[in-house]
Each structure stands twice: as C-alpha cells, then as structure tokens.
Amino acid sequence: MKRDSLDAAFSDLIREAWDWTCARCGRQFPERKGKDVHASHFYSRQFNSTRWFVDNAVCLCATCHDYVGKHPDDHVSLIRRVLGDTRYQWLQARKRLIVRYRAADKKAMRKHYSAELERIKAMRLEGHTGLVTPVTYD
Fold it and tell me: In whole angstroms, what is the distance from residue 29 CA to residue 20 CA?
C-alpha cells in the first residue's frame, strides 16, 4: 500500500505523541528518529475508517511491531490495555464504517495532524514527557 504525505504526517504525530517510546516494551528512542520505531496500526491501513484515526495506532519498536504482527491475541491485549474497553469498542465500531475521503479531506487531515504534531513538540519543549493524546481529526 502506497504511503502518502498524510500517512507521513500521521506517523510522525503518533511517534511524537508517544514520546518516541514503545507502547509494549517501553524502549525509548531519545534521538527521535530511526527506522526501528514505528507508528503501528491495529487495524490495517486498508480500512479508511481507521487508517488515520488516532486510537488505531501506537508507537512500537520494530521488534514489538514484528511480535504483535505474529501474535494477534497479544496485539488485541495491548490495544485494549492502551485504550480501555470503551474506546476499544468504539474503535471496533468505527472499523465497520464505510468511509471515503476526497483529496480536500485528506489535505485538511494532513494540516490538522501537522498542527497537532507542532502542538505536542511545543509541549515537549515546555518539559512535558510521556504520552500526550493527540486530537483526532474526526
């Protein structure tokens, strides 16, 4: 599946929101870069209803990303722990929606997530650490 500029903005936001720390093992990436830290989607990117939805992604190191891909029950446990039962149920319901985004919608989402990234980076400069939950687009 092709990655576009919206995917890149969303991925950057998820990693920064998690303070570049793996949600599963706690490994930190203080250099704030690298291919060993991922924005991992719970439901595949093929579902537009959840592809750019904040509750559908967490920051994972490459090792944990590979692990949860091979152990779906552990992946569900991780997401349920992160979201709690209510938000997990909302995510399940959202996945079932049929959503089609126009180019203008994607542009607006990219702008929103870029602004959220800058907001969280400003918070980091003020000394905030740990998870900062970004505002999802819709």
Answer: 5
Using only C-alpha atoms, what is the Rg of the chain? 14
- How many CA atoms does the CB half-sphere of 116 hold within 13 Å? 24
Cα separations (Å) of 4 from 69, 106, 107?
22, 10, 11
Integer Cα distance of 26 and 21 in angstroms: 6
Please write the tens of the pLDDT for every residue from 5-58: 999 999 999 999 999 999 999 999 999 887 899 999 999 988 999 999 999 999
- CA distance linking residue 15 with residue 124, whole number of Å: 13
Average pLDDT, the chain: 95
**37-41/57-61 β-pairing:** antiparallel
Q: Bridge partners of 57?
A: 41
